[in-house]
């Protein structure tokens, strides 16, 4: 099974919820402004990492890049990272 990624929203102080997984990967252009177009009502956040949405690396990086396109580094609104809980749902940051 491929490694899954999660997205932290610094702006909302929460993880992206699983509903974002149904976001259309279609990119729309509006006067040079490329962005992901979500399906209506298909977004949200959760403070629980175990309830966060899981995404492919490419999907998570695309979402974070689009969300941060007007932010001057090192600041960010969203950050994509490998799922700290891993496929087994155990915290990989803590030794066994």
What is the fold's blueprint, element by element?
Blueprint: E1 5-9, E2 14-16, E3 27-30, E4 33-36, E5 45-46, H1 57-67, E6 78-82
Antiparallel strand pairs: 1-2, 1-6, 2-5, 3-4
Summed up:
This protein is an alpha+beta fold. It is built from 1 helix and 6 strands.
Low-pLDDT parts are 20-31, 90-96
User: Could you give a short account of the major beta sheet?
Assistant: 4 strands, antiparallel
What characteristic shape results from the CA principal axes? globular
Rounded to the nearest angstrom, the radius of gyration is 14 Å
Count of separate DSSP helical elements: 1
Our measurement of the CA-to-CA distance between the termini, rounded to an integer number of angstroms, reads 22 Å
Residues in helices, as a percent range: 10-25%
N-to-C SSE string, H for helix and E for strand: EEEEEHE
Question: What share of the residues does DSSP label as strand, in percent?
Answer: 15-25%
**Alpha-beta classification:** alpha+beta
What's the number of extended β-strand segments? 6
The largest beta-sheet arranges its strands as 5-2-1-6
Q: What is the averaged pLDDT score?
A: 75
